[in-house]
Write a structure and sequence with these properties.
Number of strands: 10
Bound molecules: adenosine-5'-diphosphate
Structural class: alpha/beta
Number of helices: 24
Length: 628
Amino acid sequence: MKKTENKMTLGRALRANNRALKLIYKHYPQMVLSYILSVVWNALTPYVGIFLSALVIDELVGNRDIQRLQMLVIITLVSAAIIALGTAIINKWKETQNAGWWLKVEHIVSEKMLDTDYVNLDDTHTAEMLSTIRQNFNGGGWGFGRVIECYGELMSSVFTILGGLALTVTLFISKVPTGAGELTILNNPLVVIGIIAVMLAVTFIAPILNNKAGSYYAKHADDHNLGNRLFSFFGWLGYISSLATDVRMYRQDKICDRYNRNKEDTFGSNGLFAHYAWGGMGLYGAASAAVSVIFTGIVYTFVCLKALAGAFGLGSVTQYIAAVTKVSGGMSSLISGIGLMCNNTPFIELTFEYLDIPNNMYQGSLTVEKRRDRDYEVEFRNVSFKYPGSDNYALRGVNMKFKVGKRLAVVGMNGSGKTTFIKLLCRLYDPTEGEILLNGIDIRKYSYREYMDIFSVVFQDFKLLSLKLGENVAGRIDYNKELVTECLEKAGFSDRLAEMKNGTETYLYKDYDTKDGVDVSGGEAQKIAIARALYKDAPFIILDEPTAALDPIAEAEIYGKFDEIAGDKTAIYISHRLSSCRFCDRIAVFDSGSVVQFGTHDELLQDEKGKYHELWHAQAQYYTEQTA
Ligand code: ADP
């Protein structure tokens, strides 16, 4: 980081915070408005009571006019009732609007995750940034979560100061009577200016010291985050029942204690922050509190001396002391609000650095023809690809053409580029060189959404959600029950479905429905994932080693059946088990990122020097023994 980037100025803090506030307002206008109204209301209303009670006291110790006293008491009570009512209404509004604000702030960040180019998610710098943003927020509340609080504090301070000043002006301009002896010195403008200067100095020093104490946390956000990360993982380990067997068997609790209850750790009694609490951070905090007490002493002395000399009555004493104390409190919170804003700025800037990551993938606009005949042809033309940040080609010079309705197998050793080939086909990434064509047109020119609609993929690392079975298959809440059931049957899930008393309404796993939710095995989950791919009814259906967790016999069963259920769709199978793919119309053999052979099983096997021959014979013994 350049030195200038480290320098925090109010302008820089305001720019970042204003931008964040605008963004939060765009998403949640009522939340921001209710917060602001409540802040202004709560800052100004106390002065009504201070002002009116001073009038009552002055009347009591002065003229004692019963009628005026009655009137003042009635006004005081009515205004107190109106303020209480207004406070209740505004605070309720604020509370409802701010409910779940933590999640709301998270939502702004997570929206970007869904919107950003897939390639950005793969970038380790992006992943680190996102993780740091979330840790800053969850650990210390830093980032967008603090923006409204900072503005709230600033606005509250400004209104408190303005309200207090309005009630304090007369303290400085009211004159001590000339017969008050030495105390007439209080009329000297230099004395007045001197007192104001001391008050201001003390008012500024206290929050500056306080901010210095607070800045230790901001400066050591990385340590804070690490401490929080360790705690969030090791602190909750005991609650994770799926780990209970290993924890007992290997006494993992003992190893974890080293990280969870270590005195030297960030939050431990010998840790970093304990060290600062004994040192600078604690001293700054204590000094700030002491300076505030000095301020109160000065105010009391000045007001009492003026009252003693006869400048004003008893009612005014209560008014001035209350108002000046509030002005001072307002000043302090103004400065600590600015300090908080400055401390929070780098965290906001980091969040914007993440939110500003551009989407560089070309967004085409051509519509993908919804062809009734599903007559699509895909062509890879000289396609090469390097993952971002990698110097090596994951794919190199791939040329291939295939038509809908065919069965294409993509085989090869692990790491040979099979999954990369599919990710490029689905446009999760764009090729580094070459182009991919759909019916003769570069796929980048099609509308991305529409292009995605023609593919159903069962990725190796597919995920099911802890929702209803039907919702999982359909990918929506209002699903077609008959169609879901049909797809599950096609995927070979009917026996298991028959056992579920709530049918397609059954919740998967126990997270949501702890009583009736069902756990499914890896194989069953794969069948559900296949049913999900079928429900989408896309012209291309792709299985990326969906059976990697299964034994070869079960895999052959699924692949055999899949040929039948894929019907008129193009099915692309990826596997490193050759026997599963022998029935395909075409087999593409990948080796080190290139397609080294392309043809039918029989054709490929004839080339005795070819990769396919080598792989087939390496695996043949296994197949003949297991699947014959
Ligand atoms: P396969 O599906 O045949 O096992 P992949 O397509 O997953 O192979 O991987 C092809 C090559 O690309 C491998 O060398 C792998 O290490 C590399 N690779 C895969 N994913 C990434 C990634 N996200 N970033 C960098 N390299 C990757």
